Amino acid sequence: MTLVAHRAGNALADLRAALDAGVDLVEADVRLHRGTLEMRHARAIGRQLLWEPWRDLNRRRDIPVPLLADVLTTAAGDSRLMLDLKGPFRAVAPLTAAVLRETAPDVPVTVCTRDWSMFAAFDGLPHIRRVYSAGSRRQLDQVRQLVRRQPVHGLSIRLDLLTADVVAELHEHTDLVMVWSVDTEAALARARSVGASGIISKNLPMLRGLAPAE
């Protein structure tokens, strides 16, 4: 099973901890803010505030926000990064591609997004692994059609959208069907019951326990 540390790449210490834990991928959210590629899940409200939907509202100055270049430097050529490109600005994709060309031209990197049009920015970068994400029933229907038309490296789908039959259908077209969010033992059992081949989790101790011993 592919183990993905959810949002662990949004803080440099968490990134190092996740890599040391032996996970297969470390997910990091990339957002564009005033021309800068920032690593954060929280949404910006104006220039001063960061909002984590349905949770926290913080002043930007109180929350450390690394840049994409910082994350790539900390990863030091490790191929286990999964960059989740966030909207609403589609320019995040070509700017991310430009940074990867400049600073990590030969490093395999996984790129994930729910806005699949962003993948066009990575044409010509053969080492980029594209993961199509679906967070709604409409997107799930679209991804089921997509995989019948073209090969894909992998999928990332909200767990509660899936059944064992749908996952089996998707596995006819790709080996990698990851599900999120899997933060509890109950969610892990659910992911296994539907046949997911990967889990995306913020529960690093759980991931560490699932990682194969070296």
From TrEMBL:
One of its GO terms (biological process) is lipid metabolic process. It comes from the Bacteria. This is Glycerophosphodiester phosphodiesterase. GO terms for molecular function: phosphoric diester hydrolase activity.
